[in-house]
Here is the input.
Amino acid sequence: MDPDVALEKLRKALASYRKWSAQACDKQALNEADKVADHFEALDQWLSSGGFLPDEWSRPTGFR
Here is the structure.
């Protein structure tokens, strides 16, 4: 997996989701998806601005 391609796809999917989310029928599911999108955007902005990685992403885990 190429993480740069994955991030690009996530960003495009998020933009598409934001565009079409107003048409969703299930309010609770939409609310939860909005939370996911909001947190992704915040983390993306933080990391893109030079912020540090979350602890879970910065710990060495070794190879399996």
Observations:
- The mean pLDDT is 81.
- The two ends are 16 Å apart (CA to CA).
- DSSP finds three helices and no strands in the chain.
